[in-house]
Amino acid sequence: MRSQLRSVDVLARLGGGHLAQLRVIEAKVLLRQPQPKPLEIMAEEAGFQSMSTFHSAFKKLEGITPAAFRATRADS
Fold first, then answer.
1. How far is CA 65 from the centre of its chain?
2. What letter does residue 42 receive in the DSSP assignment?
3. 10-38 pLDDT, tens per residue?
4. Which controlled-vocabulary keywords does the entry list (predicted)?
């Protein structure tokens, strides 16, 4: 997993600083897993330094909170 995040970091630097977008994409993959981990763990695994940064970036890019995203996936 860490090697994937390092690749994401490199790609983000080369791609104009879209690191938050790439981390949110990774978080969405983690949130879609059948037995998701706690949000705090997923945020860390996706590369976010804090829950507030994770929450803010996710909501800004997706229009809903990570918890709401996970809940809508559980309902479907």
1. 11
2. H
3. 555 545 448 888 999 999 999 999 887 99
4. DNA-binding, Transcription, Transcription regulation
Q: How far is CA 52 from CA 7, 48, 57, in A?
A: 24, 9, 8
What's the CATH class of domain 2-75?
mainly alpha
* Contact assessment for residue 64 and residue 72, using Cβ atoms and an 8 Å cutoff: yes
Q: For the beta carbon of residue 54, count every other beta carbon within 10 angstroms.
A: 24
To which residue do tokens 């949110």 refer? Answer: 24
Provide the token pair at 30. 């983690």
With H, G, I as helix, E, B as strand and everything else as coil, classify residue 37: coil
Mean pLDDT for the chain? Answer: 82
**Angle of the 19-31 helix axis to the 66-75 helix axis, nearest 10:** 40
